[in-house]
Amino acid sequence: MTKVVHVIAIGMNKDRIMESLKTSGYPIQKAYLVVPESKEFETIAEELERVLSVLVEIEKISVVETEVFGSAIKILQALKKELDDGNRIFINATDAPRTLMISFYITAQLTGGKMYVALPKYERGKETGISEIVEIQVPPLKRIGVDKINILKAIYNNGKVVESINNLIKLVEGKLEKAKAYMAQRAKMSYHLKGLENDGLIEMRREGKNVKIYLTPLGEAFCAIN
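The structure corresponding to this sequence follows.
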């Protein structure tokens, strides 16, 4: 059965997070608590886990708040199994620290998840609850074809760098062809690499006689979810 999974940023306002879940009206069967590495955030996460675990399944993801792509990759790796199972993703950024908000935005783009925040309500300068739930419209990233995904995965599985285009051809296709067939292989690979570099997913650097191909953090994020 399809589950509704919420990814929840842990900030310093536990009550606001709880109220956002109640006010949103979205169903929830499982929650991932994304916890920046500090004692204060971990304490809030433990308190929320005690309350929510009575109602829903809970998993925690520990992240370094300032590592935007590193945090996104950790979240994406956890969510891959949810997407593979056909589960729906809701991303609650209500109390996200600023850099984690960017990580959540990247996560929403790559998963197609619905990202939302609860705006606080104030009376006489004091927060008294939630005024409204706002869905953040997230434009989808450009779709990457199967051939390019296979190239990204080959680079990732090779330690995120490949020494030359010929080595990459061997990793992706198993062997180098001869004569005209090799020229066709090389032209096809060069075409795909140019597109991947233009999209910011790889970086190519000439070192000596060879061109080394490096996976960028964005490229690694694509690998985490595909």
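The chain has a mean pLDDT of 94.
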